[in-house]
Amino acid sequence: MNIVAGSYEKFIWGFKIKSLKKSETLTLKPLFSYPSHLSPVKCVAVAGPIAASGGADDSVKVYDLSSCSEIGSLTDHSGAITSLSFFSHSSLSFPLNLLSASDDGSVCIYDADSFVHLKTIAAHKKGVNDLSIHPSGKLALTVGRDSCLAMLNLVRGRRSFYCRLGKEASLVEFDLTGDKFFMVAEEKVGVHEAEDAKLVFQMESSKRVLCAAPGSSGLLFTGGEDRNITAWDTASGKVAYCIDDAHSARVKGIVVLSRNDSDTAEDDPYMVVSASSDGVIRVWDIRMAIREKPNPLAEANTKSRLTCLAGSSLKLLSKGHARAASNAQEEEQGDCSDGKVHDISCNAGGEEEVPSYAICSSHLLSVVHVSVGVAEKFTASALLGPTVQLILTF
Known about the structure:
Blueprint: E1 2-7, E2 11-19, E3 26-35, E4 41-47, E5 50-55, E6 60-64, E7 69-74, E8 81-87, E9 97-102, E10 106-111, E11 117-122, E12 128-133, E13 139-144, E14 148-153, E15 158-164, E16 171-174, E17 180-185, E18 188-193, E19 199-204, E20 209-214, E21 219-224, E22 229-233, E23 238-243, E24 251-257, E25 271-276, E26 280-285, H1 286-289, E27 298-301, E28 306-312, H2 319-333, E29 352-358, E30 366-372, H3 381-384
Antiparallel strand pairs: 1-2, 1-28, 2-3, 4-5, 5-6, 6-7, 8-9, 9-10, 10-11, 12-13, 13-14, 14-15, 16-17, 17-18, 18-19, 20-21, 21-22, 22-23, 24-25, 25-26, 26-27, 29-30
């Protein structure tokens, strides 16, 4: 289980959660720390052996955690990087794609194998605050400083819907099933049905919410200026439990980890990692929080102003070994395992030859040319099937 944090002092920090020998005590083993950006680090993302960080210097840095080395830089944005997200298939141990959002209002899509830039989508008129990829990998939601919510069609590589919100949202997150999504505006957290974007209810924190992470069993973990870690029951809208005064300063990042290497998932996820602007990273056993205020299982003090946090419970393999394992799994599944680009046909009236993107198990977005009809309106039923039809109306 790997943790990566970024700081205002331009540093990126890497840790590995390890169990001490002959003991159930955990420790945060330092992997690396060095100044990776020319400006403060604003966001980080981790998936298996790969990590990425985005800074106010308009660049994305990519790292190989197995060798604790920087792979390279991505410089396709003209503004500060505000959000990063990897897409990984549930059966694979290596990410397929990386999405980055920026203050320039755009979202860039990369192949996570070669980190080739595939597409830039103009998502917002102003800067993008946050993005979230649907678990299917077929669409993404973004919120921006233009007080709008946008839906990105990742199959065709374009913005498919755009609507104004009553108030600017700072965060957007899909739940683990993709049936709901959450939007955060100041201290309020809205729970929406993904089928029709209907607002189910609003949950309100005592102070501004700065970070959120979905968990299993319909839980949503939030942290912010109240210095607490709050677990919300998104089925009822009530607080399931809360770790009061988890940090001495505001909570800037939360990661929910699961023991995916265990034989049973009964207690998954049981670990939550939090980071604060006081520089401290703490690991919590949330099973203890239900009964009493827990003590952290492990903690590390970076002595810096942390700005973001990301983590992954996937096994740490080298990039080559992870790709080989992923290819082996794809061959067993037999879906698009030949590695070829597959054509898609769509009948929607007039014919027009336009570049589009086909989803395959080996790559989320592979460039193809498709004969499609010109359609002004878009619904997600073509992407997610009849059970999920995302029409963003408020």
